Amino acid sequence: MKRFALSAAAGLLWMGMAGASWAEGADPQQLEKGKALFMTGAVPACAVCHALSDAGASGAIGPDLDELKPDAARIKKVLQEGMGVMPSFADTLDEASMDAIAAYVVHATGGGK
Question: For every residue of 36-83, which 3-state class applies, written as one string?
Fold first, then answer.
């Protein structure tokens, strides 16, 4: 019984560590794609309007993403629907591209925490 309890505790600890690294880790290729889209790939490029230090962007039309720290759901919603002067990207970016931008911005800002 003692052996079972020890095995169960070790399993729970391992699952907790794996979950934490999964939550913090992101696909490097997706992040690279998201950064490229943020900087120049989206039309208009996100960096034209938004400040984001990781991208070297200092746009002042939209919110400063370093300060806002949006979560992925918020980013995706705004990319799909637009907001204020920001246009919708629903006709120009596919889901994978929007996901990549959202992942990159969340990763770069520590958003959603």
Answer: HHHHHHCCCCHHHHCEEHHHCEECCCCCCHHHHCCCHHHHHHHHHHCE
